[in-house]
Design a protein that fits this description.
With 648 residues, this protein is an alpha/beta fold. The protein folds into 3 domains: 10-354, Alpha-Beta Barrel (TIM Barrel); 384-476 and 604-645, NAD(P)-binding Rossmann-like Domain (Rossmann fold), CATH 3.40.50; 491-603, FAD/NAD(P)-binding domain. The strands form 7 sheets. An 8-stranded parallel barrel has the order 3-4-5-8-9-10-11-12, surrounded by 7 helices. A 5-stranded parallel β-sheet has the order 15-14-13-16-27, with helices on both faces. A hairpin with a 3-residue loop joins strand 22 and strand 23. The chain is globular, with a radius of gyration of 26 Å.
Length: 648
């Protein structure tokens, strides 16, 4: 076996795990509104168990309804009514020889009053989280003591339901971590002050669980190896915490990092490399004898195996990798690494949750919909289907259709597959997107899809194939406003800059539009040594871009000296300058520019002449991806999957 360490059994306490792959806790919002395990969340976890995971740690599980609401549709372990559905969850996971822990959680100051009926949020001390922006009230001593009991009750509910163990969430700036951190615990009672007092809250929870559930019931504690905030838990402090937790009987330490105020260190954007924080786990592993689970931005089985070989940790936490592909472990064990659909660290999953929706994955349209989308119907019967366009929508549709035993012919006018994703891999730090293109291409080639590159089919070409159905995935057209000088030689599209790998240096370049394509194009040009300015018509840079992603890329742009100016609308261009309107005071401004790069979004081609000709000549036409509704990668893969899955 290639990954010997990865697929060696291990133990947490007296609990045996079949391998070293752990699915760490990640929010889903798939539970019922009353906090019970829904059919959707049970199927979601069972898919990962079936896919080869050794241990699953559930999403944040609520133990208190008064101040402890993390999300609305959140698993709960508060009262007896939660036991039956948790038992069904445990049995579903156990069917595949996978173990499961319930992660017990309270958000503390990292919550919102709107989640608790308008009541003020509560925390160890009245210190506002800058990301949340709401000042919490300080919990009374009696209230803290009551929460200790609620955590213990949550553990007993888990044990009663047949769950194998619990994890206490003391990382990411949540309540237990708030008590442990000197930044957020300024109390003067028995729960604050000295190190031992700051550890008292978690200590009482652990000792209470051991008393009620017995010493053999496993307890893991998730801690920050570093909070990455000034005045917070440092790596040295985390090592001290880990040694202390071991001394009071904890069975495993799960090492993560960051709080809401240093969020990019919790769920890393695409620019962060695998293993960027492995020193955090190493420091703790070197100082404790109990097993260490570690989050190290792991994407590939090769890197997971390397960490285990190096002795960096005892169990590897593969989170978003198992959202992107629930069979991550099974494919690795069977030597099918090329088939693993890679996580591209786009943060679509967390963005959905932050917007109050259920979890989704940009590259796995089945995520959260495992109940609706079960096995593919093998009813294609060799009927021919034409897919026009080899971007993510077209390739995903081709894959699903081929799985369903249709005979698929895919046309792509360029000499390479990938569409907008291929272009998106060109800017700095975006190379990982090419992994997705490679994976999708590998899958459809393995399935026997007839791929015709460098070919834009005519109506006659398609007629000669006599298709049962046609899938139009041609992408969209870049928006070009009719303005003076817009068709000049010094005006280029952002997509052309990336596609043709525009090679200019020491030029003044104005990028118009600060969506992700505009910002990434600005970085691409700035890295080559150009003086780049980005203007945006609306009042903020990066409209519609997720906060962590925006912070990540704008931080890099600032290092390159890129100026980003909102409230500037392009109104005209000549050979040496661009003219923009200050939308705040209507002042017209001239800006020197050797080149003007347009990144104003994409328009649909659903009503183009070619599409109309297709509709006049063929039946059963489906339009997907940007061709139908311009959007992100998630929209492309989702429409490609949905329309191919439901073809009749």
């Amino acid at each position: 076996m290639e990954y010997e360490k990865l697929f060696t059994s291990g133990r947490i306490g007296q609990l045996r795990l079949k391998n070293r792959i752990v699915m760490p806790a990640m929010g889903t919002s798939l539970a019922t509104s009353t906090g019970e395990a829904s059919d959707e969340i049970i199927k979601y976890y069972e898919e990962r168990a079936k896919g080869g995971c050794g241990l699953i740690i559930t999403e944040i599980t609520r133990i208190d309804n008064e101040t402890g609401v993390g999300t609305l549709n959140q698993l709960c372990a508060i009262e007896g009514k939660h036991v039956p559905r948790l038992e069904r969850l445990a049995r579903a996971v156990h069917r595949h020889d996978t173990k499961i822990f319930l992660q017990l959680h309270h958000p503390g100051r990292q919550s919102h009053s709107r989640l608790i009926d308008g009541r003020q949020i509560a925390a160890p001390s009245p210190i506002t989280c800058k990301t949340i922006g709401e000042e919490p009230r300080e919990m009374t001593t009696e209230e803290v003591e009551g929460l200790v009991k609620k955590f213990v009750i949550g553990a007993k509910i888990a044990q009663t339901a047949g769950i194998d163990g619990v994890e206490l969430h003391g990382a990411h700036g949540y309540l237990i971590g708030q008590f442990m951190s000197p930044l957020t615990n300024r109390r003067t009672d028995k729960y604050g002050g000295s190190f031992n007092n700051r550890m008292r809250f978690v200590t009482e929870i652990i000792l209470g669980i051991k008393h009620i559930c017995g010493p053999k019931f496993p307890i893991s504690v998730r801690i920050d190896g570093d909070e990455f905030v000034e005045g917070g838990i440092t790596h040295e402090e985390a090592i001290k915490m880990a040694r202390y937790l071991e001394s009071i009987g904890v069975d495993a330490i799960n090492v993560s990092s960051g709080t809401y105020e240093s969020a990019v260190t919790i769920i890393e954007p695409i620019s962060y490399k695998e293993g960027w924080k492995k020193h955090l786990a190493q420091g703790i592993k070197d100082n404790v004898k109990i097993p260490v689970i570690a989050c190290n931005a792991i994407k590939t089985p090769e890197f997971a195996e390397k960490l285990l070989e190096e002795g960096n940790c005892d169990f590897v936490a593969v989170g978003r990798g198992q959202l992107a592909d629930p069979q991550w472990g099974k494919k690795a064990m069977e030597g099918r690494e090329k088939e693993i659909r890679p996580c591209i660290a786009c943060l679509h999953c967390i963005e959905q949750l932050m917007n109050g929706k259920a979890v989704e994955c940009a590259v796995n349209p089945r995520l959260g919909y495992e109940v609706e989308y079960t096995d593919y119907k093998k009813d294609g019967n060799g009927r021919r289907v034409v897919v026009i366009g080899g971007g993510p929508a077209g390739m995903e549709a081709a894959r699903v259709l081929a799985e369903r035993e249709y005979k698929v012919v895919l046309f792509e006018k360029k000499e390479n597959l990938g569409g907008s994703v291929y272009l998106g891999s060109k800017p700095p730090c975006k190379e990982r997107l090419q992994n997705l293109v490679d994976n999708m291409e590998y899958q459809i080639r393995q399935l026997g899809v007839d791929i015709r590159l460098g070919t834009a089919p005519t109506i006659e070409d398609i007629k000669a194939l006599d298709p049962y159905s046609i899938f139009v995935a041609m992408g969209g057209n870049s928006i070009v406003p009719e303005l003076p000088g817009v068709h000049g030689e010094n005006v280029v599209l952002a997509t052309d800059v990336l596609d043709k790998e525009m090679d200019v240096k020491n030029k003044k370049i104005l990028v118009v539009g600060s969506g992700m394509t505009g910002l990434e194009t600005a970085e691409y040009l700035a890295e080559k040594g150009n003086e780049v300015t980005v203007v945006e018509m609306v009042k903020e840079i990066g409209p519609g871009v997720h906060g962590s992603v925006l912070y990540d890329i704008t931080t890099r742009l600032k290092k390159y000296g890129v100026e980003m100016i909102p409230r500037r609308q392009l109104v005209g261009i000549d050979k040496e300058r661009a003219y923009v309107l200050n939308t705040f005071n209507n002042e017209k401004i001239a800006m020197e520019a050797d080149y003007v790069v347009l990144s104003l979004g994409v328009g649909s081609v659903a009503n183009s002449q070619f599409v109309q000709e297709l509709e006049e000549n063929f039946n059963n036409i489906r339009i997907l991806g940007d061709a139908s509704r311009p959007g992100k990668i998630s929209n492309a893969t989702q429409t490609g999957f949905d329309l191919a899955y439901t073809l009749e």
